[in-house]
Amino acid sequence: MPAVAAAMTAVLVQCAPASSPAPPPPEPPPPPVRQLPPETFRTVAPPPPPPTEIRPVTAAELGATWRPGCPAGPEELRLVELDHWGFDGQTHRGRLVVHRDVAEAVVDVFARLLEMRYPIEKMRTVENYPGADDELSMRDNNTSAFNCRGIPGSDSWSLHAYGRAIDVNPKLNPYVPRSGVHEPANAGPWVDRSRSEPGMLHDGDAAVLAFTDRGWRWGGHWRSPLDYQHFEIG
């Protein structure tokens, strides 16, 4: 019997379930997530417009607008680069050639026009047109200043030949002599000054006062001819 008991004990020992392994230690908790402040998005401001520039101009740059014998030489003139408001509601860069004595005054006037958003279609120096033809410049509604030319129907020099006159939006503000043959030729609809459209000039307009309050004379105040585009000084 003892042998049988020993055998049974051995069988029971072999059939006993093995002990379970110890559970693994718990994982440490993750580190707390650092809450970052929400990113601040900044609106990047557009670069500032280039500053107005006044610089000397050469005879080569003046092209056909100047020739020997003109009353103002290149050394008396200045090229002014400045910003103006366009008919598209955007700012554009323009160029005028004026007498050195009025360059700062021109900058002052056009800064005021830009501030009030008076629209100017374009502002190019007249040598950009074949033969520096004033009629072509006016038909293109181009605002311009210096051009060595005379007064229409006269032997006298225009103040444009001295760089002391500026024509503003000339197609919308035509030259109307007593004969009624207006310039430019394509300005017929705007001879009627009862019209009121952006870019036109009328007596008492803020754009006219931007010139006249600073000592410029306006051709729209003349009896004959009426020159609605024209401002002069000196």
From TrEMBL:
User: Which InterPro entries did the record assign?
Assistant: Peptidase_M15C, Zn_M74/Hedgehog-like
Quote any Pfam family the record assigns: Peptidase_M15_4
Q: Where is the composition biased (Pro residues)?
A: 20-35
> For this UniProt entry, which residues form the secretion signal?
1-18
Highest taxon listed in the record's lineage: Bacteria
Residue ranges of the region described as Disordered: 16-51
The Peptidase M15C domain sits at 153-233
Keywords for the protein's UniProt record, in alphabetical order: Signal
The name on file for this protein is Peptidase M15C domain-containing protein
Q: Write down the species.
A: Mycolicibacterium gilvum (strain DSM 45189 / LMG 24558 / Spyr1)
Q: Taxonomic lineage per UniProt?
A: Bacteria, Bacillati, Actinomycetota, Actinomycetes, Mycobacteriales
